[in-house]
């Protein structure tokens, strides 16, 4: 039932206050009266072209790229666009010093030159069902609490049953996942189909795709052309199939048109993709826990590790290639966590959350629901109980889990199991050495020793609880240097030849006694014994309490807010525009190629200009991709509501035409994962004309551009 307080809040709110906030599940478009807001904001296409369950719509052209990004179809023949940083690890995997597609770039000149990417998938949403009633029915029957009913163990059994009833069970590579919404108060089933033969078509050189690298990450203005192009292949029937030379490009019923008109300040934009995770229904104490016990330890030690990696990479091109993917991933995480904490402080988010809690307490008193009365206090007590354990757990696993060899690797577990059981030893030895050979570029104990000497002092100085692993008790930083010198110099993993000789004859006892193996096992033992049970108890208690609080908040807001992001297909809408991050500073909404030249610093590898691109710039040779001002447009800003997982998402104009790719956010708005801030949140997009220029004129992959439906 609507409350008087809510009605007053709605009436007093400024018109359009909700317009740009929210990652909307289009299946709920009618229930949440979203279409009216979209049309008022500027949408110029019918609702059934956005989302339809009976005919082709935008739902059918947007997919999951790999395991954590978004991609979109841009041709009838399965051509896909996404971000360079989304394809980074896959391109890194197929790159060598001889064929360095990561740094030198790659431009196919025909379909025959497109390169397979092992392990890369592209996944489409086939169907979405509301399964809330079924989940709750089973939960009541099994007396499952909120934590259990959101667990994969619980949902997985239900997924299997519903999949068999769906009529899709016999379709190739179809899977289903049930996803909680609104803190576990609603559940939706997503049926998805994965294509497993995806090939590289275009990857720009590092100096273009990642110009500015980690220094420019989360920063505006930007000038990097953060895109990559791939193609989906299928069998003769158009079904998913593993790589085969006889596979054909996927024939698509719908794909995006590409607009060369560009965008102007104030233009309507919408973004469709798979935002990963937001937490906007947290209490004040939960936000504080996130900042102080999760973000802070990782950010603190992570900064030190990043500086170390950067020094190593700048010293040697081989190391630059070897650690490029690790550096990008860690840099993104650390800068995100640090930026979030800074943004929480600068925006006064804790005070804003306190105000929301005050409103909720008034609502709770009027609601008649006894569970709402003390729910905030119960959450606060839970946070207070577990905050130090969570802090130490995060710091411990970050510091002591930093070695390149991991005990949780499947090949190590399989080999140890074979030694323990005394079965299939010959095959186990071969598989283990094969796995070690495949990962030899990742296992570097000399590098690990230097890195641990940098990281361990952070544990010594900053851990909060008395609990210590046996190897750390009473140790100083100097003690640890000697300790790790012994481990990394005397382990058989330090040299390939010694490892081969050891593996041929070793017993389980001898394997476990290796100093590196012994050290890694102690890390796992201590971590599990000290933190696993404690943090699990927190998550169980927190989920059960949060479900009540989120339900109350949704009732207070009359279910008018969008659900938190959970890596399912969403649409967000907004407009092109700049922003003012602080007093006397204003950022314009667009950049051009000349801005890249202004950033040039030949002494800094992150800001070295690609010479062939400089030639195009000096000659102003931009072809049909030139802007109205005679410059090559590079990037632009919108106020669309995005987060991690939206990387690679299509940025569309009012007619649903592709005008850019979302690739980043601005550092001032990183607290928006906790609360949307319309004044500061901006989505950084690469202009599609920059993308096409690099594909076509710069790289010569004209055949791919010719496949696209290009409009003006």
Topology:
Elements: H1 4-12, H2 34-41, H3 47-50, E1 62-65, E2 69-73, E3 79-82, H4 84-94, E4 106-107, E5 115-116, E6 122-130, H5 132-142, H6 146-149, H7 152-165, E7 174-181, E8 186-195, E9 197-203, H8 206-209, H9 213-216, E10 228-234, E11 248-249, E12 258-259, E13 268-273, H10 284-315, H11 317-322, H12 324-347, H13 349-367, H14 370-373, H15 375-400, H16 410-421, H17 425-438, H18 445-462, H19 477-490, H20 496-505, H21 508-513, H22 515-556, E14 570-575, E15 579-582, E16 585-587, E17 590-592, H23 593-599, H24 611-619, E18 633-638, E19 650-652, E20 658-665, E21 683-687, H25 688-698, H26 702-707, E22 710-711
Parallel strand pairs: 12-22
Antiparallel strand pairs: 1-2, 1-6, 2-3, 3-10, 4-9, 5-9, 6-8, 7-8, 9-10, 10-11, 13-14, 13-19, 15-16, 17-18, 18-21, 19-20, 20-21
Question: How does this model look, in words?
Answer:
It is globular, with a radius of gyration of 26 Å. Strands 1, 2, 3, 4, 5, 6, 7, 8, 9, 10 and 11 form an 11-stranded antiparallel β-sheet that branches. A 7-stranded antiparallel β-sheet has the order 14-13-19-20-21-18-17. A two-stranded parallel sheet has the order 12-22. The protein has 712 residues and is of the alpha+beta class. The two termini are 49 Å apart. Helix 15 runs antiparallel to helix 22. The chain is built from 26 helices and 22 strands.
Q: How many alpha or pi helices?
A: 26
Q: Report the oligomer.
A: single chain
Helix content: 40-55%
Question: Quick check: average pLDDT?
Answer: 91
Q: What structural class do helix, strand and pairing data support?
A: alpha+beta
Distance between the termini: 49 Å
How large is the radius of gyration? 26 Å
What ranges have pLDDT less than 50 throughout 5 or more consecutive residues? 1-19
Strand content: 15-25%
Shape type: globular
β-strand number: 22
Sheet with the most strands? 11 strands, antiparallel
